[in-house]
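Problem: given the chain below (220 residues), write out its structure.
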Amino acid sequence: MKFIVFALLLISNLLSAQDSTYYLSAHKKSDDSLKYELNQIIKNHTEFPYTSSSTDVWDILKHTDRDTANANNVILLYSGRSVDAAQEYNSAAGWSREHVWAKSRGDFGTSNGAGTDVHHLRPCDVSVNSTRNNRNFDTCITCVDVIDNGFNTGSKRDADLWTFEPPDAVKGDVARMIFYMAVRYEGEGSEPDLELTNTLLNNADQSPLQARLNHSPSLE
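Solution.
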């Protein structure tokens, strides 16, 4: 079964098990009907600017990804390392803001909306962010370890395919963020219509697609 169908069915089951008027319109829905209702519920989320002298994405991530053992630090998504939150980018010596749904996949950049949606933005080491680039998420076949300042992150890139495999500890987080984006952005107004695909996209492809919906058939 395709992961997106499984995810939507799982959400449907969770909704039926809880007493909440927030999700009432999605109750007992499934497949495309569930996706539509969830989109209607979540589409008016509060937006923050990417960079601003007021509250911006940097500020949000310092809270959402704060190291519970050190409030001055954030945890890097693909590395698991704890780093100084105040560093921000710091001429590539600090941390960066990873668009889990790569911003070139739909060419939405860092404009308000998909480009600043903190539901898929996470702190990331600058070099690891560069390695991930806009690679498709998939299980690697010819695996190359992704290293962060001498530390083996557990992430891997494929030597032959344009793919990136996150470490096991955050694969669920990555999947949930990708599913969220595919539900949230349906092409309304100037927003991109984001969809999941099984087709591996090359680095120059700016289609509003993200792979891979299923893991590599060669690994089944």
